[in-house]
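Minutes, project check-in
Item: structure for the 167-residue chain
Input as provided by the requester:
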Amino acid sequence: MRHCRCHQSGTGFPRRRLAGVALQEALESKAYLLGGSDYCAPAQLVGDFLRGVPSTQFGEVNPSYTPGVRLGDLSQALPGYAIDAIREALPAFGKQIRAFERHDAVLTAVESRTSSPVRITRDPGSLQSLNVRGLYPCGEGAGYAGGILSAGVDGVKVAEAVAQGLL
């Protein structure tokens, strides 16, 4: 793992190109180790997370992550500024959304994938790649969506463009 200079703000976020990718790799590596190095994810109950104590057993809420989770202390999985922000946000969301901060809800670390940092350019009319005819870039991986819903909408638009091209 590479170490790099950080902002004076103390956030731990490096000041260089592709720093977000380096942070993502570091978070994923740490989560892999905390999860037992077998693709299980580290997890903690919300109540334990808010109190700052490791979780040792589940409550009524069962995790949905299919490879499995290993309970423990998520403060080891993320930088301190992120842990502090989440500890502040959970009760605030709980005031707006009933049971959001339910004590036995399961927090699972880490969701680090985001929309693509690049965009494969496409023709606005045919939606085909400008460089490779017959290639229809779409969704998050191609830089045309920011989440599962917008990726689905973009997929429908591209499917319609492909179907139109077959007529």
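Outcome recorded: The helical segments are 19-34, 46-51, 80-96, 148-166.
No further action items on this chain.
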